[in-house]
Amino acid sequence: MKKKIGVVLSGCGVRDGSEIHEAVLTLLAIDQNGAEAVCMAPDMEFPEVNHLTMKETGAKRNVLVESARIARGNIRDMREVKAADLDALIFPGGFGAAKNLCDFAAKGADASVQPDVARLVREMAAANKPIGAICIAPALIAAILGKEYGPEVTIGTDAGTAAEINKTGSLHVECPVTGFVVDRKHKIVTTPAYMLATRISETAEGIEKTVKAVLDLI
């Protein structure tokens, strides 16, 4: 039986959803390691950003519908997914992780989290199943699990973001772009990706190592 790895998407595009390179590289690494990706996203609306001008358009889009673009239509509504369905869970980055799945981008350590996302992450932690988070997504994990678990995570070297992560009760660990941080006690693996990367190959290296480390913790 292939291991089932949940991949939580937050839209389609770095400025208002999942970072597409990070999402695709995650799916590729899961497949190359002989596991099966189970894509999912919450069914909710978010403000659209024009990726040419980098400005909000005033229009709204749906996270689940947009995420289905990356998943080629093979995606589940997150509210229907339980920890019992999965062997591990991974969050690619992109601003959607900090704006749609939670509001860390606006509120930092005081962030509130989308209920289906918070529930599934807590279920995975309670079941001692591995969680991976990429780019800014470790801030989401810190916001959910910081107070109860105090996990070690990385977003790279950004001092401001690291300070807000530490305020959640989590511990930020500095990490180079092609590296990753493993909290073995809580089975959480994180990597900086485009928080530091200047090239897609750097992002790929960190994500490949992270996915492998997540699978090794199952």
The secondary structure category is alpha/beta
| Element-by-element helix/strand order | EHEEEHEEHHHEHEHEEEH
- CATH fold-level topology: Rossmann fold
Strand order of the largest sheet: 5-2-1-6-7-11-10
**Please, how many helices?**
8
The proportion of residues forming helix, as a percent range, comes to 25-40%
Q: Report, as a whole number of angstroms, the end-to-end distance.
A: 13 Å
Low-confidence stretches: none
Annotated CATH homologous superfamily: Class I glutamine amidotransferase (GATase) domain
Assign an overall shape. globular
Q: Mean of residue pLDDT? A: 98
What is the CATH architecture descriptor?
3-Layer(aba) Sandwich
> What share of the residues does DSSP label as strand, in percent?
15-25%
Would you give an account of this structure?
- The chain is α/β, with parallel strands linked by helices and 218 residues long.
- 37% of the residues lie in helices and 21% in strands.
- The chain has eight helices and eleven strands.
- The protein has helices at 20-32, 63-70, 95-99, 104-107, 115-126, 137-149, 159-167, 200-216, and strands at 4-8, 36-41, 45-50, 55-62, 76-77, 88-91, 131-134, 152-153, 171-172, 181-183, 188-191.
- The strands form three sheets. A seven-stranded mixed β-sheet has the order 5-2-1-6-7-11-10, with helices on both faces. A two-stranded antiparallel sheet has the order 3-4. It has a two-stranded parallel ribbon with strand order 8-9.
- Helix 1 (20-32) links the parallel strand 1 and strand 2.
- It is globular and about 45 Å long.
- The protein starts with a strand and ends with a helix.
